[in-house]
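A quick aside before the break. I want you to see a complete sequence-to-structure record at least once, exactly as it would be stored in a machine-readable document. Don't worry about memorizing anything.
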Amino acid sequence: MGGIPRRGRKPVIYIYSPTPRAEVSVNLTLSDSWSLSAVWPCTPSIQRVGSSFGQVAEWLVSTSPDGTLKDKHTGMEVTYLYWEALANVKPLSPQVTGLDSTAECFDPAKPSLSVMDSVLLPVSKVGHYLDKALSALALNAEARTSFITFWLPDLLKSPYIALRFVPQEQYARAAQLDISPKPDVTTRIFILFRGVNEDEVSFWTVAAERAEDDVSFWKAVVGIDEIAARDEAAFRVLEWGGMEV
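That is the input. The structure line, written in tokens, reads:
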């Protein structure tokens, strides 16, 4: 990535409610490792957390059973809430206010992707692998298609791709999401990936072997409740995003 700040790209938040809800509050609190670079719908409620780099963004929406959200501030109808953030060059701390600072975390300023926690795939197999993995992680067809087509231009730049999904608990320490009323289940999928050249493949043997495992192992890694995440009678939230490292 050189001197270009890493960007958490396209985190989008879907809210699925089987019955209309007149008011749902969505509060996103970032750690001080990154700062918001874009949100949609635009919200006036973006503020710093104390004197740190951390930020809070808030939306107030109503929901429809078809997944459409109406933003109370702009009056716009959208299918999801969107945000992006740039990693800060000199983060003060990866801690999010109110969370246990001793737990392992995902730091957007120093994201980790290694042979021990990733899979390695030739670029020709990445799309199919992602479709299977995202299905195992309970993303529906629309979300899977949007995910893959958004990242595809970046994935096609290299002959091989190393990737992993971040455990939800670690991700939450970098981007805490509070929704009221509380959903029955919240599923947050965040991918880290990097291109790997032909002359580097020999260093990624273990990751290449792991790519042959059943993709369902990502459910335990990420920590999702698959049954609840697929329950259309439940009040559910789904978020997906990622970062090239």
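Two observations worth writing down. The longest strand covers residues 185-196. The CA atoms of residues 192 and 243 lie 5 Å apart. We'll return to this after the break.
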